[in-house]
Amino acid sequence: MTFSGAKLALFLGQKIVVILRDDKPDIPYPGHWDLPGGGREQEESPEVCALRETEEEIGLQLAPSDLVWSRRYSRPRGYVWFFVSHQPAGLVSDIRLGSEGQRWALMDPREYCEHPLAVPHFAEQLSGYLSEARA
């Protein structure tokens, strides 16, 4: 099935990795807190897309087996996949910001869901995951 991109809610311990988007008027949600991920390249799978983008954006190499939850949802440009991975907090020392974004940070996942500068549809997807994980 066709999709346009993939995002990853990457938990390092109890916090998630977020990236402050560049503040450029020609990109969606400039200056907002984003999650690792992005647009599909060629014929890559949703998992490969999310993992490639994560490595490009924050320098962490994860395996498909590290993805523990996923959902596909519809956006104006097509379907997008949302993944979750839980990794040890110690991986924070391996993070290296790539060429996109102003900086990265760790954020409490509930704080992200309520943050006024969170990308709204990613906050919604994360909130759905958190609700399911509690059940």
From TrEMBL:
Gene3D superfamilies reported for this sequence: Nucleoside Triphosphate Pyrophosphohydrolase
Domain spans labelled Nudix hydrolase: 1-130
Molecular function per GO: hydrolase activity
Cofactor annotation: Mg(2+)
SUPFAM superfamilies: Nudix
Protein family (similarity comment): Belongs to the Nudix hydrolase family.
Protein name: NUDIX domain protein
